[in-house]
Amino acid sequence: MPRTGSLEADFLFALFEVQRLLRLYADKQAAQYGLTRTQWAVLAKVDRSEGLKQTEVAEMLEMQPITLTRLIDKLCDSGLIERRSDVNDRRVNRLYLTKAARPLMAKLATLRTAITATAFTGLNVPETHRLVEQLELIKDNVRDALQSANGTTKPKERRYG
Q1: What is the crossing angle of helices 37-48 and 7-30, to 10°?
Q2: Could you give all domains of the chain from N- to C-terminal order, each with its CATH number?
Q3: In a 3-state reduction of DSSP, which class is residue 35?
């Protein structure tokens, strides 16, 4: 398909549109397990780093704490996450997956692989690796620009996966 706009407009439009479509597709796919994409994201964060505070998860997901609290309530009611009091500060809740969540996490890992395979259809393995490397570079460039604008420095985020 020939490009008619500027490189800047084409890049931003394509990136934003890919993100939007991936979100929609992930929502649709997560629904087969009775989850939303956002609930899935919370489960994935807790799975990667059990024992996080609710406030830490909210910050990582760029979500308001009250919004996360409602999501955690639903996931607790579903028996997928449990809150445990912090041993040093009883005002703090730490989040852990339940045993019941483990089989679901395995299914979600398979689903993540399927979604990724769908997105990468038509690309070969070296192309997909190069694309991810380029996106990581773009992410680092934008993070560095944000930090420079804010006068702060933060450690680089871990890569996904």
Answers
A1: 90
A2: 7-100 (1.10.10.10)
A3: coil
pTM above 0.90, yes or no: no
**Residue given tokens 């420079």 in the structure block:** 148
Tokens of 149: 């604008």
| The residue to which tokens 């969540």 are assigned | 101
Q: How many alpha carbons fall within 13 Å on the CB side of residue 136?
A: 12
Segment holding 58, helix H or strand E: helix 54-60
- Rounded to a whole number of angstroms, the CA Rg of the chain reads 18
For residues 160 and 154, give the distance between their C-alpha atoms in angstroms, rounded to a whole number: 17
pLDDT tens for residues 128-158? 999 999 999 999 999 999 989 887 655 555 5
Residue 74 CA to residue 55 CA, distance in Å, equals 17
Tell me the residue length of the chain.
161
